[in-house]
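SUBJECT: A protein chain and its fold
Encoding: whole-number codes for local backbone shapes
Chain under study, with its fold:
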Amino acid sequence: MRVLPLIIAPVLLAACASVPPQELNDARSAIDRASQGPAGQLAPADVHAAQEQLRAADESFESEGDSPATRDLAYAAKRKAELAEVHANTIAARTQQAAAGAQLQQLKDQQVRLTSAELGVARQEIATQAVQLATAQQQRADAERRAQQAAADLARIASVKQEPRGMVITLSGSVLFESAKYDLLPQAQAKLSEVAGVLTKQDEDSKIVVEGYTDSQGSESFNRNLSQHRAEAVRTYLVAHGIASDRITAQGLGLANPVADNASAEGRADNRRVEIIVQPSRGTSSSSP
């Protein structure tokens, strides 16, 4: 009977060694985001370099496990993906600027062929379009600034990450509700008040989806109903604190899309969560930092 711990220990060590470090997961997410976004089209060479760096990190993990070398390679891969996104954004901005310049030049060339009466009308149209272009560029810059500020403010309140579907704000179910209930706890109301304050101040247009999740304990129908009630409770609170009701919807997904292993208490706690997804507005992209 005393031999059992000696058998279990290597198994546990092997299991721990097979878990990728967080740096490797972060790098993979960053590269997925870059390849699916503008960088995949505008900066493919940069994305490829990030993928090659990730491949080196994967090989290091396979041979050395969760080592400093693996973490360093993974971090470098993530940075390359982020640089690819910055490069793509720069290319897109230059392309837009060049197109606007070409359009203005085309309008100027047309002026030469116009009569004096037509020339006055054309000049007015050019001035109007120039104002509209400047306004659109300013609105885009303002929207991006607000999105960046909102992400920074929310990161001090809850877990925030950027995904292709938008900015995802994750709140632990244990912070929001008692077990098997959907009445908001006092500390949950405080956090949601802060979330509502940031969203109403920094983003007045984006559509918002509240998704409720549970762990695998209990029946599927019970968990789906519970997650729906929890999502609706969060939606109702946010609406009551300034977010327009037509901007926000609630959806209960039960035990779907687990983010951790339900076999452990820690994993089940991670799966009992509410995600608030702020979808990208017309003036911003999901790759905003």
Observations:
- The two ends are 55 Å apart (CA to CA).
- The beta strands are 159-163, 166-172, 208-212, 248-252, 273-278.
- The mean pLDDT is 82.
